[in-house]
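TEACHING EXERCISE
Course module: macromolecular assemblies
Task: Read the component lines below, then compare them to the predicted structure of the full complex.
Student: A.B.
Group: 4
Components provided:
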Amino acid sequence: MSAATVTIREPELGWGPSARGRLGMYCLIAAEAAIFTIFVVAYLFYLGKSLSGPTPRQVLHVPVFFTICLLSSSITIHLAVRCLRRAKTRAFARWWFLTLFLGATFLGGTAVEWRHLIDDEGLTIQTNLFGTTYYSLVGLHAFHVLMGLLALCTVWLFAMFGKVKSDHAERVDTLALYWHFVDTVWVVVFLVVYVIGR
Amino acid sequence: MSTEVITLPGTQTTVETSRRPLVDRLHEWVTTVDHKRLGLMYIVYALMFLLIGGVEATIMRIQLSAPHKDFVSPQVFNRMFTMHGTTMIFFVAMPLVFGLANYLVPLMIGARDMAFPRLNAFSFWLSAFGGILLYFSLIGANGLYGAGNAPDVGWFAYAPLTSHSFSVGHSTDFWILSLLVSGFGSIGTAINIIVTILCLRCPGMKLGKMPLFVWLNLVMAGLVILAVSPLSAAQIMLSIDRYLGGHFFDTQAGGSAVIWMHFFWVFGHPEVYVLVIPAFAVASEIIPVFSRKAIFGYPVMVAATVCIGFIGMSVWAHHMFTVGMSSNANTFFVLSTMAVAVPTGIKIFNWLATMWGGKIDFKTPMLFCAGFLFQFLAAGLTGIMLSAAPFDWQLGNSYFVVAHFHYVIVGGILFCLFAAFYYWYPKMSGRMYNETLGKLHFWLFLIGFHLTFDFMHIPGLLGMPRRIYTYEPGRGWDTWNLIVTIGVVFQAAGILVFAANLIWSYFRGRIAGNDPWDAWTLEWTTSSPPPEYNFAAIPSVKSRRPLWDLKHPEDPDWKYE
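Instructor-supplied answer key:
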């Protein structure tokens, strides 16, 4: 085994080294899903247990527009990656920017909603259990959106300098996987906070 | 299949590096992304914390050796048991497990490194930073007049003890942050282990041909992802309570102290399996080699481990029988806890069947594994006793419980980890350990262990609660506590012999060669210690014992598997 030459072969197995980014992302998603599960359980457990107002029904408005924004960003990022696979880098950059824009709009929506809740309704994280669980759960999701936006921004900057090529499609797709996850979590958060919770 | 030939520099580079200035070499260790160096750093770091945690345990045992002692103040005693528990679980057991996995998994699957070497280094430094953060509390947590320094809320930090009114100052914050930071490190390493195992296996190594060590570490990593994440979530909630004035665990505002218990034990119980499954992994490698037989029932061993992983996720509330859950919940957790005994029993029988009829060689690693088998069985039996809710109502939070889980963690896990040190020491250092000192360590530690933890059950049965600072004479606890403390002396002596052996053998030990144990897995094909690239040529395997095939071409394993 001490020969000074090496033979590097293509992997014979289904899980090759090329799949590691994707698999790593799946594992990260599993860990994140476990974290969100705990926050969702806490939200559901404390529903209706607040000792004082305001209640979700009094103050929460269903953010239909911003939800549509976030969910459609999943479609645009998918289209972006598809363009990149086919080496259409300009189309990729356009779809990618649209994704970024939709994500940022959603985050802006959360900011507006929080400002309304804090300034007009007087609901802060300290007010009652609803405030604590609501800001934690929605805030945790917003934090993940923010992280996703930073990553999307980085890729977009690279794309602007013409550094993103079709060779990078797999890596970009791994990031898209994370973005899909963030959107999926929003579906759960939306159902828990704005449908079941109201 | 494209083939490409690369010429690698010879192994003499390692000789050159050892002659370079100390600063250069240290700089190399700090900036390294090599899985073997990171593995060793995990291990050394864990051993340092093992000494610290051991000193904390000794302080507690001196305090409890006789009634009405005041060796330390009650405040210090509280800090000691909190720091002892937190240190031993998060900064000794976890890094040891990760260190071994880091070092051995790539070697065993014929890979050159982990899947994400930089993430690996990042995770290690996060864990290391977490440990330093915990101990920095001794200096940094004394924020307010009259506030304590080190955390004193117990290793599971039940609410409302952790609220601002009961935990003044920053000690609890240090505890939260250190676990949060090291928890992220653990999740990173777990992701790395899973991806490495699934993506970087050498040609021919299908899932069913991996060494059991690798299989069990795969299950361990999966459990880390599912168990440590809830802990991180709970720590975030606790920080929100303490810093932002949230009410998650604030009973005054309708919050629940019980839900903290659920969140903690959703992590806390799978954590036991996170630690014990790698111990099983070690036993599954060492017992066959020293019995000169292939492992008995490989597929069943894998299935039983996966089964333990699944059941282990659904037993957490057996830590909470005394809280007063509904009888349905109690019944569920009693039954699921007892169900864990089935796959665990299967594993014990498989190890015994591996030894049965084998040509057993009681070298130090095998001695520790044999000790593990008996002690882990006994620990499992007291576990079954405690899993019955009515029995637990009587003995929950008593020294019986303390004795039970130390039997698991010391008698089971630590014994296997010692076995692992002796077994792989020649591979990691290139030199053999001293067999006499190794056996001396085993016997000293065995005697110490049984003195301490066998006799710890009895004051528990006689009603001695855990975490008490001192006790009245004449309750029948005095003698037992004295014996328990005497056991510590033997354990400490054993640890000193162990440390001396490691250090002495590193400089003076016999050169080990590639394969001192006549073993069968891939790590023994490369030099000791392995070169940075592990394998000059990526191996290709046909059976679960590739080295057996190589040594016995007339009777290879792949003909029968």
